[in-house]
Amino acid sequence: MTPAHGHTRRKTKSRTGGESSAPTLEEWDTMEPFGSFVVEGGNGEETVFKLGSTATVLPGTRKVGEALELYQYWLVRILAIRGRNCGNSSPKKKNARTKAKPRVPEYWVKIKWYYSPKEVSCRIAGFKESHCDLYERISSDHFEIVSALTFNELVPIMKFREDDPDQQPIGKEDFFTRYFLRTSSKRCEIESYSSKTSNSKSLGCICGDPYDLKDKSSLHIMYMCPRPQCRNFYHTECLLKCRHWTQMTHPLIRLSCSPDTDEFPVLSPCPSKRRKKKTEAEHFQSLSEAIAALDPPLPEPLLQLAAQPIVRGAALSKAGLGLAGNACAVVAARRMVYAAIQKGSSVPDGWESDLELELDAAVVEDRLPALRLDDTDDALVLMCPNCSGPI
Ligand SMILES: [Zn+2]
Ligand SMILES: [Zn+2]
């Protein structure tokens, strides 16, 4: 058991990592461990910082009391907390008069740094700060021991796995991280957080460019194939240029691509193992017939959402989409449709609250570029470059 917490008061002059009075690793090993520490701010409010939490710290170049926007702070994760001069005395007795010279308790924190995109662009050739967001940070394996006095406030940092169809939405002022910077290897290396396990392909479009969070061009809206072997996003323009499109044959055609199987989604609760091999078109025919046979029918807004392309891009921010796009909502709606077909019954009332959505499928669709053949004006659907499924 570690003691409850250390208690410290923010000084008028803050300190940052690399300070000369920080304990050496030898001293660190002998120091008393704590589970948390409390920082008392200038106005008397207290913040409890616990092991494992993420927090902002004042940048070394800034003065205490200087007004900063939230994104201007440095970010850290707390790995360990130790006290110096704590002895057995309670921190409350720190001002007690004793004959010996008073020893002021100090609290030191082992942290992991989150880098800013600008710092990473100085270390990794080809990494462009310009494709990142103000609230984006790059996780790292860079550890340091810093004073508890430098801590500002607790903030959560979300993990952004770009290839995860179940990625939770990321708000405008949410800190997030999609890359990890390895500083301990001979040369700094950067990698993306991924939902794929082994044999994963690199993330990104066929053009090789990363997801630019500031690119507002509607032709750079990215489309995702959610099938487990694919799980990649591609620019509209790149898919069109490389002729990864086909004529739209049915408004529900994208339901062919499930986030849970590389095959066509299973429509029966006990699929026969000796199923006759069907073409994708035959599979889709069965799926659309099964949807049409449901009584009562599936709600139209659910079908519209499930059949919507999975998209992301800054051009869609006016439709209320955050930087993670609509993947999470669309795949949840698709799963709901597949489950209804398997059960042979429609969804219960209140399906919207089960999806926990605040997304209007029609508003998103209005913002997507109209994909039509020039001569006949027929609608197109984009195709996944990997599996050729409709996306
Ligand atoms: Zn591209
Ligand atoms: Zn695919």
UniProtKB/TrEMBL annotation:
The superkingdom listed in its UniProt entry is Eukaryota
List every stretch annotated Disordered.
1-25
Q: Where is the composition biased (Basic residues)?
A: 1-14
Q: What is this protein called?
A: BAH domain-containing protein
